[in-house]
Amino acid sequence: MEGFNMFDIRKIQEQVIYRSVKSARNDETAKKIVYGKDELAATEDNPTWVKSTMKRLENHFDKSAVSEIRRHCQCGYGMDEKLKLVKELVELSSNMEEFGNLDKAKAAGLFCENGELYLQFSFCPCPMLVDVDRLDTDTWCQCTTGYSKVLFEKAFECKVDVELLKSIKMGDAICLMKIIPQGNIWK
Fold first, then answer.
1. Of 4-13, 17-26, 43-52, 146-155, which range is least confident?
2. pLDDT digits over 128-165, tens only?
3. For residue 22, how many other CB atoms are within 10 A of its CB?
């Protein structure tokens, strides 16, 4: 996270949410969701802004549209270095079991169970949620599924679905995602 301060991260989040909502609907809706009524959101601290922005988003769109919008909000922090690692793991393995059992995979939170790939974190990796004790819905956390989708699609060179199964900020002990490749990784 070097080079970012919390104000920059908030600005980046405002921009990615704005762009995602604008492309889903329009400029006016994006303004309402990101900045609130009469742009009062500018006065909110980060935890309050996160919760109120997600509530505004949920009030304007149905659940699947909300998830889709949030998946497009991934910020891309550290993507190159993670991509390099996942590509290296693919090179070192010949199937999903081997991939998930590599020490470097386990160290990165990846594991394979019954032939299925999972990614878990023992802490919330989102800098915007540092001061958020608990979220009411998993809406904010959907951006991590978007991040993982981009990462694994690039590394696996096929379409990938990602399901959020657990979230620390929703009260779970870990964050857990299921990574579901839609094609052959090892040709």
1. 4-13
2. 999 999 999 999 999 999 999 999 999 999 999 999 99
3. 17
> 134: how many CB neighbours lie within 10 A of its CB?
12
The structure tokens 């790939």 sit at 117
SS (H, E, C) 169-182: HHCCCCEEEEEEEC
CA separation, residue 75 to residues 10, 131, 171, 175 (Å): 11, 19, 23, 18
**8 Å CB contact between 115 and 99:** no
Residues pairing with 120 in the sheet: 176
Ordered alpha helix ranges (H), 25-141:
27-35, 46-60, 63-71, 79-91, 96-101, 103-107
**Cα(163)–Cα(118) distance, integer angstroms:** 9
In this prediction, residue 75 carries a pLDDT of: 75
How many angstroms separate the Cα of 76 from the Cα of each of 12, 144, 148?
11, 10, 10
